[in-house]
Structures are given as structure tokens and as C-alpha cells.
Amino acid sequence: MKKIDCPSAAAPQGEAGRDGLSVFDIQRYCIHDGEGIRTTVFFKGCPLRCAWCHNPESQAGKPELLWNEERCTGCGACEAACLQKAVWGGCPEPDRSRCIACGACVQACLGSARQVAGIRYSPEELAAAVCRDRMFYEESGGGATLSGGEVLAAEPFPAVLELCRLLKEEGISVFIDTCGQAPFERFEQLLEVADCFLYDIKAMDSQKHRKWTGVGNELILQNLWKLHLNGARIRLRLPLVEGVNAEEEDILPVIGLLKKGLRAEKIHLLPYHDFGRSKAQRLGHVSQPSFQAPSREKLEGLAELFRGAGFPQVVIGG
Ligand code: SF4
Ligand code: SF4
């Protein structure tokens, strides 16, 4: 195998339109995505449509343009730069029916009002970008977390496996952050190369799950059990939204899974935050409903339910 040049290899810039894995962000020094200090790679494309999604730019697999009206000076440089005529009539808001997210207007915009979410990387480029922070992983017990969107839905999937394999060869720990909605064959392939699964449960009631995410939870729960039976390390992550899934009746079935023997080394209660709302607006999506996080007192009460049932490994936050 070609040795990865690290830690000096620079993160590649990539180009919209070329082959590779579509990634919308690479965040360094993350401390809420698994053990130690981690670099989190956010893949584009997700099979769920959570109403509260905090990364709406992750949902579509293709690149998308974000336009931030607050930063726009109205200079018109984007209109001059756009060969697709997706900016026209003196209006800087992109015409989404024409925009191909080529990024030409991003280069032209001196106000940083425009941004393309979704750059294609080869597995080698991503591995090199992750390897840059090797020193922090070694000191903290950290590594890479592959997130999204949904990394198990990323295409081509063999490139995801190759990325994991490259990281393992470099001795870098790999955590997989997943919503669970994927064929189990993909999980099976990852079992060889992943150290731990950060596994989301949005709702235990399938109808409720479908109402808020667009998808029932049957496959998600099946995959969770299969991972458990295959000996995977699992950390459960429960995004909690007031009025959606933050009542005792929502939590008790999760405790029921643990009582049946599901092995979870940690249970994270993740209160809702509204980062996604402004991003949805910049993407030109239908505006997100206004949700609230459960109060701290309520979160403590829900955590206490786990502790009282004999599962002290519950934490509030990532
Ligand atoms: S990303 Fe490309 S196609 Fe879209 S508005 Fe900008 S220049 Fe035009
Ligand atoms: S180039 Fe940027 S600042 Fe100028 S009109 Fe376009 S979006 Fe606004």
C-alpha cells in the first residue's frame, strides 16, 4: 500500500464534479464525537429527513450552494461569474433550478456570502487530511469519526471501506456515527475496520420515527441488534427534542433494550440545538419548524431513569 504522507499532508481542496466521496466538512479538534480529540469527516447524503436536522446541507448527496443574505453586499460579482445564469436580474439569491453548485460565484464573492457544501475526495486524500492531527490522537486517545449525513449511504461505498482501511493501517482509531438506516451488509463490512459505532436512536415508536424522520425504525433497530450480536462496540446517541421524543414514554423503551442485554458502553442524551435553521434558509430549503431543547432539569430526570435502571454510563451531551 502507498504510505500516507502524514502529518504534513495538506487537506486537499478538491473540485465539485470530480469523482470521489462527497464531503461537506472536515472538523478538527472535536471532543464530542467519541473518545479523545477527533477529526470528524461529514459525508453528504442521508436516507432520513429529520425535521430538526442540524446539518441540512448533509441531506442531499449532490453539492449545494449556500447563500448568506446577511453577508451579501449586493455587489453583483456573482451574477457576472455565473455561466449558468443561475444569478440574474440583479438578485444574488441563486435560482436553484439552474444552479449546479460549480462554485464560480464563491470565488468571485468577496463578502464570503456564498459557499458550496460538497467537495469530492479520494480515500487517500481524506486519510491524509485526517492524519495531519495524528499527534492529538496519540495524546488524547482520539482518532477519526466518520459522520454525516450518513456515512453508510455514501457512494461509492468501497471508497469508505478503503478510507477506513488506510486509517487502520496508520493506527488511527475509526468511529462510525450512524443513523442505522442502511443494509446490514454495509455494517458487516465496516465491522472489520471500525472501532466503535455511535448509533442514533431518534424514536423507539416506528410511527413516531416515520412522522419526524420520514422513515420507520424497523431496519435501524434490527441493525442495532445485529451489531450487538456481532460483538461491535456501541454507544447510543439519543437526540432529544421537546414535544417530539423527550418524555419518559420515549426513554423507557430504550432502557428496555438495555435490559434485554443490548451492550452500550455509553448512552448520550443530546439536547436539540437550532444550528440547522439558518443553514436550511441559506440552502433555500423549506424553513425548519421551531423546536426547543428539553430543560436541563428534564434531561437530568431522563438520565436518572437510566441510572435508576442500572445503567450509570448515561451522559448528557456528546
Ligand atoms: S454555484 Fe455556479 S451555477 Fe450556482 S450560482 Fe454560483 S456560479 Fe452559478
Ligand atoms: S458576490 Fe457575494 S456579496 Fe456580491 S452580490 Fe453576490 S453574494 Fe452578494
From TrEMBL:
SUPFAM superfamilies: 4Fe-4S ferredoxins, Radical SAM enzymes. It comes from the Bacteria. InterPro entries: 4Fe4S_Fe-S-bd (IPR017896), Aldolase_TIM (IPR013785), BssD/PflA/YjjW (IPR040074), Organic_radical-activating (IPR034457), Organic_radical_activase (IPR012839), Radical_activat_CS (IPR001989), rSAM (IPR007197), rSAM_sf (IPR058240). Residues 63-93, 95-119 form the 4Fe-4S ferredoxin-type domain. Its cofactor is [4Fe-4S] cluster. Keywords: 4Fe-4S, Iron, Iron-sulfur, Metal-binding, Oxidoreductase, S-adenosyl-L-methionine. Gene3D superfamilies: 3.30.70.20, Aldolase class I. It catalyses: glycyl-[protein] + reduced [flavodoxin] + S-adenosyl-L-methionine = glycin-2-yl radical-[protein] + semiquinone [flavodoxin] + 5'-deoxyadenosine + L-methionine + H(+). Residues 32-312 form the Radical SAM core domain. Belongs to the organic radical-activating enzymes family. This is Glycyl-radical enzyme activating protein.
